[in-house]
Write a structure and sequence with these properties.
Two copies of one chain form a homodimer.
Chain A lengths: L9 H16 L5 E2 H8 L3 H14 L2 E4 L12 E4 L5 E7 L3 E8 L4 E8 L6 H19 L6 E8 L2 E2 L5 E3 L11 H6 L6 E5 H12 L8 E6 L3 E7 L2 E2 L18 H10 L9 H6 L3 H25 L3 E5 L6 H15 L5 E4 L6 H19 L13
Parallel strand pairs in A: 4-7, 7-10, 11-14, 14-15
Antiparallel strand pairs in A: 1-3, 2-3, 4-5, 5-6, 8-9, 11-12, 12-13
Helix pairs in contact in A: 1-3, 2-3, 6-11, 7-9, 9-10
Chain A binds a DNA duplex (30 and 30 nucleotides) through α1 and α3.
Chain lengths: 380, 380
DNA sequence: TTAATAATGATGGAATCCTGAATAATCATG
DNA sequence: CATGATTATTCAGGATTCCATCATTATTAA
């Protein structure tokens, strides 16, 4: 949302005012003209003018009147979140999750397809197709209604939406994810690393909503990180920001070993459950795992000095067993220990981030000076 | 310079246009109205109106006519960089350097006062006073003309301009730098860590001018880092960003030991000179030093994936002996190795960064909507 | 039915921008 | 030294947009 403020002629001023009206309407509920005028700082008359424009162009719609108040009932206007649809897809090792939402990011349908790390790329892509088709069908939406699609995948992603390198899924390296998905939906397809998108989701709808600088740790079968800096997702020059796990000293690769080394007792398959039940060896293994993770986390924290560290990923359900040790380790290593919290987005975080990526694309078009022509301009 | 674009009434539009005119004039040479109109995108008539306003309020001045062209000679207008002065001060271990510049950042006078790491805080503050007084006197400027002052110091600086912790100068911990300097100059005093300001200087006038994401390494008797992210100085939530040296594994503290362990031969006191002259032990010591530095640098680079790493500080004069090893080490450790370059700002980098800090403050006031009242408003 | 309340609609004034034509200043040339 | 070419400046007219104000309209409460 940071633009160079550049002035211009009167037409541009109207555009700017139309944008502020749109932003005020966006996400919130329907507003009357008087309310809109108050919030935007414009006069009532001008607000009316702007809204008439937006109404004609299809960006806003009239909501029902609210009855039961004294005085003449006011017309109420709302953002036409139903004018288009966006799609967010998480391609993971164990599941493919597709979320279909309206332009407010309100999820209309979610479709989950189970996959397996051992699957080949064709099988996995077929699962992606099924998830997308299911999400569209479930919401009763055709591909033409989809304005933008965000896709999350493991591994490094290049500028064209191709997977440059995936350590967790070797078969996946080199797959042209954007190309494949583009053939299934209309509109632009944006592909990004899953840890980064999970971080984005936290700063959108998660526990990091009010923080400007955030380190997000994806703790699960793989370990990864995503960075929010100054409220924005930080990608890095080569899209490789946050890949601290590659540093051998950091030991994110060997961290998992501690967990794998634990042998389940009879009837218990989950190390975290075992630890809660008092299994000493499980507790110790988890502690060693967290200590390894914490080295890399310290490097991220010392580099950025964030306000908040969020732990997400599969293991965040067992935050009670992780956060204490993590806090202690960070405290030991860092100059200023940030707040440490667990994600509350369950296993939908990554897909929500993908959704947000698609929404960002729509918003950018909304804010592009000279645009705001009409919603249908997306389909051109 | 990044503001939310918010629209408003016609008066606000004029303000925005006045700002774009100011930005166009800023830093560049004098321009005619026709040139200004072309660059700002405004019509000639409106540009004239805006410039008349700015002229009346004292922000711009008429420059001399340029003769020798065909046609009626055009009036030319320039930013009144001479309307005020700013001061940048670097308080280091071995010197205090004060730069006095105009509002374009053109340095008018620089004053250097030698100090010693063993000095007490009173002695050092006295040296600061002398440097400031010398810079003012040298440029023939009174304290009242100084609109803003930036100060660089070693150690962690808190929000009020007090040194929270200085490892290099233990006596310096707790000194209220902003308070002291405020009593010597008029206008606001901004204090910041020296590594951070050196980074700022590189992205302003150094080799990092065209990079958005930069890691700056201060390599000298102390080691430090400063980060430029998305074109802006990154401070962190507690102003402790870049303090990766605190991580014991990183070894920035022991790095110096390698250099100190080298014993000078007869007639040679400088390890870098010795290395150039073929002293094997000196070469090896430097290599070990750089390898230690590189561990922390790798952590910074892996975290941020910057476009560029800049090496500054006292040792950057000997970049020929450092950069090769540093590149090789980064290459070994990082996923994508950024470009590595040496600073070209000699030992004025930190002071220039302090100057930029002061100028940023002036610019912010210039860009604050509702301001742009008159230059003299700074003195109120 | 009337009073109170609050939204809508219409009018006029002011600020700002743009376009285009008339005027002014300088250089080159006969 | 006058004239034309060239470019700047100045001025006038028209258009857009915003704001303030007032009359009108729709609804609830008494």
């Amino acid at each position: 949302m940071t633009e160079e403020l550049s002035g211009g002629d009167l037409h541009r001023l109207r555009q700017l005012n139309a944008l502020t009206v749109m932003r005020t309407l966006r996400g919130g509920s329907a507003l009357t003209l008087t309310e809109l005028a108050q919030r935007t700082g414009l006069s009532r008359a001008s607000t009316e003018d702007v809204v008439r424009d937006l109404l004609e162009r299809g960006w806003v719609a009239e909501a029902e009147l609210k009855v039961g108040t004294v005085g003449r009932p006011a017309r109420r206007y709302r953002f036409r979140a139903d004018a288009g649809r966006v799609l967010g897809v998480d391609i993971g090792g164990h599941k493919v999750l597709a979320l279909l939402s309206d332009l407010d990011g309100e999820v209309l349908h979610s479709e989950r397809v189970g996959v397996d790390p051992s699957m080949g790329r064709m099988e996995r892509l077929a699962a992606v197709d099924r998830a997308i088709a299911g999400a569209l069908a479930g919401a009763g939406v055709s591909t033409a209604d989809v304005w933008a699609t965000g896709v999350a995948t493991t591994g490094l992603v290049d500028g064209t939406g191709r997977v440059m390198l995936s350590e967790a899924l070797p078969e996946w390296t080199g797959v042209d994810v954007a190309g494949h998905v583009s053939r299934r939906v209309s509109g632009p397809v944006l592909v990004e690393n899953d840890s980064k998108l999970a971080a984005l989701a936290e700063s959108w709808r998660g526990v990091a909503r009010y923080a400007k600088d955030v380190v997000f740790l994806l703790a699960g079968l793989r370990t990864g990180a995503g960075l929010i800096i100054d409220g924005k997702l930080h990608r890095g020059f080569g899209n490789a920001a946050g890949e601290i796990g590659a540093l051998p000293q950091v030991g994110w690769i060997r961290a998992q070993e501690h967990l794998k080394a634990w042998t389940p007792g009879p009837g218990v398959t989950n190390i975290f459950q075992a630890a809660r039940d008092g299994d000493r060896k499980a507790v110790a293994a988890i502690r060693r795992y967290v200590k390894d993770i914490a080295v890399g986390a310290s490097a991220l924290v010392l580099t950025l000095d964030p306000e908040l560290v969020v732990v997400g990923g599969g293991f965040s359900r067992s935050a009670d067993l992780i956060l204490g040790t993590l806090r202690a380790e960070l405290d030991r290593r860092c100059i200023r220990t940030p707040e440490v919290r667990a994600s509350a987005l369950a296993d939908e975080g990554v897909a929500l981030g993908a959704l947000r990526l698609a929404l960002d694309h729509v918003d950018a078009a909304l804010n592009r000076p000279g645009e705001l022509a009409a919603p249908s301009s997306f389909l051109a």
